[in-house]
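Reopening this ticket.

The earlier resolution said the output was attached, but the attachment link was broken on my side. Pasting everything inline this time so it's all in one place.
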Amino acid sequence: MNLYHLHSAATVFCFVFFLGVVVWAWSGRRKAEFREAEQLPFIDEPGDRS
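Inline output:
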């Protein structure tokens, strides 16, 4: 196994990892959590207004 094979394996691993993250982020089970998280910047904290 030379350096070329190691670089190729690392590239394939990173690509598969990237695809896994994309599938995880776009899965339907995560939708409710992301809907809640996207509203966090708009939630006013008590005592925030002067």
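Reporter confirms the inline version is readable. The radius of gyration is 20 Å. The mean pLDDT is 87.
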